Amino acid sequence: MSDRYYNSLSKEHQKIVTDAARTAILAGRGLSRIIDSSEKGLPVLQSRMKVYVPTARELKAFRDKDIPSARAFLVKKYKKEGEYWVDKFLKEIARAEKKLGY
Fold it and tell me: How far apart are the C-alpha atoms of 47 and 42, rounded to whole Å?
């Protein structure tokens, strides 16, 4: 949906569209996880592809380069809401990594 069309909607309709988009994203992620963990998911892909797992050093280099620019883009586009979600997302990543011992 274009920004122009979205902005032409009433606040009520914008909220409906935003809520629906968030729900669709969560549902899509859930379905993806189910498929990935099934016999049709990653095991099938691994039998057809070479799977490369980056080293901790490579992941750090990627994050050091990617996160600042992605954060700046999202904060510029979505202002305080973008800043809130980026910070929350990064905090959850750190929490999950700590729990997993990374």
Answer: 9
Q: What is the pLDDT of residues 14-66, one digit of tens each?
A: 999 999 999 999 999 888 888 777 777 777 777 888 878 889 899 889 999 99
Listed residues 32, 51, 70: the one ending a domain: 51
Who's near 69: CB < 8 A, 6+ residues apart? Answer: none
31: Cβ contacts below 8 Å, ≥ 6 apart? none
**Are residues 34 and 64 located together in one domain of the fold?**
no
The pTM score is 0.47
Q: Residues 44, 59: one domain?
A: no
- The values of phi and psi at residue 41, to 5°, are -90, -125
Task: Give the other-Cβ count within 10 Å of 54's Cβ.
Answer: 10
